[in-house]
Design goal:
Layout (H helix, E strand, L loop, with lengths): L5 H28 L3 H24 L7 H29 L4
Length: 100
């Protein structure tokens, strides 16, 4: 746990917690508005959460070389997350267009 300072840990952990709360808020909005496309956004946020958790885990174990695969997983989840965000944004956009 010596890889990061206490203030940096606070930022990392609070960011992960905030992301979890944001996913929950988006899901609640989807249910309240009855717009299923917003649930896609909530699901699309999960890979970014996994990415953040990989980073925190790697730092928790002092950036141990045997956990280098977490860095690869984090990068992969960031790419997947960006793609799922794009897909969810497209889905939301399409759901808001008037039917022809």
């Amino acid at each position: 746990m010596h890889a990061l300072s206490i203030p940096t840990w606070i930022i990392h952990v609070s960011s992960v917690l905030e992301w979890i709360v944001a996913i929950w808020f988006v899901w609640q909005y989807a249910e309240a508005s009855q717009q299923k496309a917003w649930q896609a956004l909530a699901w699309g946020m999960v890979p970014a959460l996994v990415s953040a958790m990989c980073a925190c885990t790697w730092h928790f174990f002092d950036n141990a070389p045997q956990l280098d695969w977490l860095v690869t997983l984090q990068a992969s989840m960031t790419v997947v997350g960006n793609c799922t965000f794009m897909a969810a944004a497209w889905w939301i956009y399409r759901s808001l267009q008037p039917s022809v």
